[in-house]
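Troubleshooting log. The previous run stalled partway through. Resubmitting the same four chains, unchanged.
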Amino acid sequence: MPGVQTPTLRDVADAAGVHPATASRALNPATRGLVNADTARRVIKVAESLGYRPNPIARGLKTAKSGTVGLVIPDLTNPLFPPIVRGIEDVLEPAGYSGLIVNTDNDPSRERAQIETLRSRQVEGFIVATALLDHPLLDQLRREGVPMVMVNRRPDGLDVPSITPDDAAGVELAVRHLAELGHRRIAHLAGPANTSTGVIRARSFRNTVRDLGLDEDPALTATCSYWSEAAGAAALRSLLDSGAEFTAVVAGNDLIALGCYDVFAERSIECPRDVSVVGFNDMPFLDKLRPPLTTLAVPHQQIGAEAARMLLDAIRDPSRPARSVLLPLSLVVRGSTAPPGASAVE
Amino acid sequence: MPGVQTPTLRDVADAAGVHPATASRALNPATRGLVNADTARRVIKVAESLGYRPNPIARGLKTAKSGTVGLVIPDLTNPLFPPIVRGIEDVLEPAGYSGLIVNTDNDPSRERAQIETLRSRQVEGFIVATALLDHPLLDQLRREGVPMVMVNRRPDGLDVPSITPDDAAGVELAVRHLAELGHRRIAHLAGPANTSTGVIRARSFRNTVRDLGLDEDPALTATCSYWSEAAGAAALRSLLDSGAEFTAVVAGNDLIALGCYDVFAERSIECPRDVSVVGFNDMPFLDKLRPPLTTLAVPHQQIGAEAARMLLDAIRDPSRPARSVLLPLSLVVRGSTAPPGASAVE
DNA sequence: GACATTGCTGCAATCGACTGCACAAACCGC
DNA sequence: GCGGTTTGTGCAGTCGATTGCAGCAATGTC
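Second attempt completed without errors. Output:
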């Protein structure tokens, strides 16, 4: 004998002696009021005893709701994203939703195709965490009224809700920390200029340096072409080669800071004696580095959770106005920052 | 004017002047042969020009196929899993499938509920990467003929296909490497005894030590209660406190090895001069540690990809016999291993 | 006691794609 | 020119749950 088929609504209705329509109404909290309380109770009990589980596919066909949302990220392998995804899932799941993840690898055409696939799968909304999403696509989704939330990136001029860490405040924390240690000539290895994050952090760096009365010197900023160790290393090398003098570095993110570590090893610069470094993101295991990296802790999981909540809100009430949330960061002070040592760089 | 509705099969059929049934057959490669070649061509062209995308929900209702599979993992936040998931998605996506991820946190009741949810979502199969899945549940799925593949874990006595790294060969590589450096007293910090991985690695450790004629001493093995830094540190402390003498440690995995680094710092033991350490998994950024950790590189992404391929095979042909695959590892030699130094540990 | 109201339940259509079956047209050979 | 195939297409039912509408009984009103 083959396994028992999972029971359908009809089975429940038959067992309870009612019509499927009645069973449907009894089981759905929103329509339960239409059914006699006793009948409803009976149906519910029967449903439980049979182990009935509504088939979301069938339901989705009629209601045009799939109970899924699309998660568009560049690459799950980047340690930034797993906690975000985890936070998202933790909110979606109790709400009866699931997330469908796609990796775009920051390839616009791939991204377009992926989004197309997700749409054909009838996702009810998107959480977009890619930096390079081209606006036409975004615009189009927006115009069609597809619910959407952006993560880690503020849409400029676009009416889309977003959840981002408070990058500006974070950079300010970092610079202030270095200033309190006594640093006056602080360099910045900025993230790519075509990412909102990179631009915002760089601007905040400039502002904070000015506000605190530190040495303002454009020559102390280098811009990385990618968010990567290699790019960070290259940027630091160019800064050193240019003869610029500084006693501390604010890196655009942790990967860029890791690139600095490589250059330190290359040129026997000792951190933090010769140069202090601050990262950004607090990736896992940074405390195991030598020296442990001072960095800004971003509440990634919370960001994901908040994004999911906002998306669910938007799905339930599409007319709800777009709201953007900045989440506060905290500075994690570790061994890579210290007062400027006796010997300066170079 | 609201956005144009996405076209349905009926729209395509009307536009092509045929019956929806004919359009369906023309669009489906498997049934296309039933349709006149000219008609088929015409339908396909119309479908393309309208931008028709079949609705997988509607299709799934009739065919009882959802185009989704369940990915059951303990915690996406564990750096082990993202590359595996990525490998899985990379295979599923071109096949028209999507993965639904659930995190069990190694909680059996949560796991049960999650799997139930996935089943009600009509997933066509499972890729299971949790260590603690209780057998009754597994057995039941198996009996009901639900396609399933296990990852990172060999099912003992269960007729389920699995993809695992060749743990035994990996440990052998590690021990052999240390032996070649001149180590004779090598300790092992084994993973939990209730995980197949922990047991297999420990057994291989014993075997290799014997085969190479190194010092066999049960006092040189400590078992960790979890795969974590804290447990690794605790195990190493207990080994040191017991007065055991050794010049190298084979850690059950990288986290346990990281725990060793903490203990080294605590007790001013210098690695690798005093003790060499080998990890397992090659998590990201281990090369940034001081000293960089020698470890075994596991082809996680490849494991995921292979698992997905096997699952798709099983879905297409459920009668296909269960096959288990061992993937080879490679030793990544970095700075944490060296010939035993002048001064031995305590 | 006639009639309106309320409350509950059943009927049947619907969502979009798939598919077994029937049927028409074309084609075949003799 | 007639039975007998192919070949191609259409019809209609199906998957499982939802929902507008109709109908029926109980209750209320005068």
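Takeaways: The first helix of chain A runs from residue 9 to 16. The mean pLDDT of chain A is 90.
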